[in-house]
Amino acid sequence: MEELRKYIKSSLPMGTTLRASREEPIAFGLVALIVDIQFEERDKAMDEIESLLQNLDQVSQVDVTAVSKLSTGL
Questions:
Q1: With contact defined as beta carbons under 8 Å apart, do 15 and 37 qualify?
Q2: pLDDT digit string (tens) for 8-25?
Q3: Contacts 24+ apart (CB under 8 A), 40-47
Q4: Which domains, from first to last, does the chain contain?
């Protein structure tokens, strides 16, 4: 999982950051890598990230569980 985490971090497009990650056991020895990715708000940004993750050999499924906007404090 550490290798996958590093690969994801290095593959993200400009303006995108891997903020946090954790492993979560699923069943029968399967483990999910839960990632928190921050990205700039622009058209199709989410689609690009999902596609990038889905096309990795080690990834069988991508699920978006939450999306929120960051406050700039202005």
A1: no
A2: 999 898 889 999 999 999
A3: 40/15, 40/16, 41/69, 45/16
A4: 2-54 (3.30.70.60)
pTM reported for the whole predicted model: 0.79
CA nearest to 68, candidates 47, 41, 34: 41
E-assigned strands of 1-74?
16-25, 31-39
Separation of alpha carbons 63 and 54, rounded Å = 10
Cα separation of 22 and 20, whole Å? 7
Task: Give the side-chain half-sphere CA count within 13 A for 31.
Answer: 12
Identify the three-state secondary structure at position 71.
coil
Q: Which two tokens stand for residue 41?
A: 């708000």
- For residue 3, give the 3-state DSSP assignment: helix
Q: d(Cα 62, Cα 59) in Å, to the nearest integer?
A: 7
